[in-house]
């Protein structure tokens, strides 16, 4: 119950603070004439929220004093993004910030951003970046590293390591910091698991997805038990990111392609799912795939809380729990619950399916203001705690560990389960590769060869492996 008082008091304090700003910027989707900025470029001291419970470690932080990083212009800071909700975030936690927000549809974002940096009259001073394009911008020479913004590597010690490693170059310079994370897990349909697998309890279902051989076996069982009406997974393509997250060995060693044992296992699993019709055959993420997921035709899917929110209507965040009602002495109540909702479990490998990073272009003349925004959303523990209360998976290990232990984050939608108890350990284990070029070449080559193999154009795995080595050598210029 004291946990509840902590979070409730924190929400009240945070809401009160956010309402005290005398001026705030307005997000804009049009290109208007820049206004004169009233934004302060110095950092502020963050104080703790009192609590009477000594067992609760209330986040406290004192951000470093202003550095030599300064704004070189009085213009309003220009921010590019693909998230329509980002201005609300700024208005809530930086109410006095004066900014212009240029929203671009996600499908057009990378090209529009590149055009803007190459001479658009509305050149960004700060921009949002997604998982798939993060390393391109981190390694492309068009962004500042955090040290150039006065943010040292020592300040990142509470962040989940994969988030800054994914935005780092070979010298470990960090070019972006994440404020919204998306570690992946398994979401499974409880009543469907009960009817097709014989159990819906997390501890028992966990044994049915422990490794890829077991997953394949249970995909066959579900298919057989329902005569093909229900599938374990909606698309065999879902396997790809989870499977390859387990590989830690480099693809190239001493100038030679290092195939390893995983390629054969992957091809065999994909072949079995395809040949035996163990999925619905829908394109991953398509309307048909989503329809089957929401109409009791697919047992489970891999994804983050953000993905679950979009797909099945899960709403993350802090849920205040009512006091249990007392029963009269001698009174007994027998309740036979109906199996409903979903549950979460760790996937066979730790990975992530999204996230949002903040990056600053080398051309900016608003370094201090950009740094202040990054500090507020990725380093300010009071701000991040309130964001977590509202449902964000924030980039602070300690805060998310508290969420994992707080019963008020248990979800009725998840049958009383606290998803953070599953996801925080996953986020700690995620490993990322900084060799983006090789990873992309590998993915392209495997997909092309897999399609040819499943279509019968490549007859044996041995032939596929030979073609993989030759193709990857050519793509990487090793021959």
* CATH architecture classification of the domain at 2-183 and 352-429: 3-Layer(aba) Sandwich
Q: What is the H level of CATH, i.e. the homologous superfamily of the domain at 2-183 and 352-429?
A: Periplasmic binding protein-like II
Structural class: alpha/beta
Query: What is CATH's topology name of the domain at 2-183 and 352-429?
Result: D-Maltodextrin-Binding Protein, domain 2
- Strand portion: 5-15%
**First and last CA, distance:** 65 Å
Strand tally is: 13
Question: What's the helical proportion of residues?
Answer: 25-40%
Backbone shape: globular
* Name of the CATH class of the domain at 2-183 and 352-429: Alpha Beta
Helical region count?
A: 18
Q: What is the rounded Rg? A: 25 Å
Low-pLDDT segments, ≥5 res: 1-66
Overall mean pLDDT score?
A: 85
Major pleated sheet: 6 strands, mixed
What does this structure look like?
This protein has helices at 2-18, 86-93, 109-117, 134-138, 161-165, 190-197, 202-205, 212-225, 239-244, 262-275, 287-294, 305-312, 367-378, 381-389, 397-405, 419-429, 436-454, 461-476, and strands spanning 26-28, 45-46, 61-62, 77-81, 99-103, 126-130, 177-183, 185-189, 252-253, 256-257, 300-303, 342-345, 352-359. By secondary structure, it is of the alpha/beta class. It has a domain at 2-183 and 352-429: 3-Layer(aba) Sandwich (D-Maltodextrin-Binding Protein, domain 2), CATH 3.40.190. The strands form four sheets. The chain has a six-stranded mixed β-sheet. The protein has a three-stranded antiparallel β-sheet with strand order 11-8-12. Helix 15 runs antiparallel to helix 16 and helix 17 (436-454) packs antiparallel against helix 18 (461-476). The radius of gyration is 25 Å and the shape is globular.
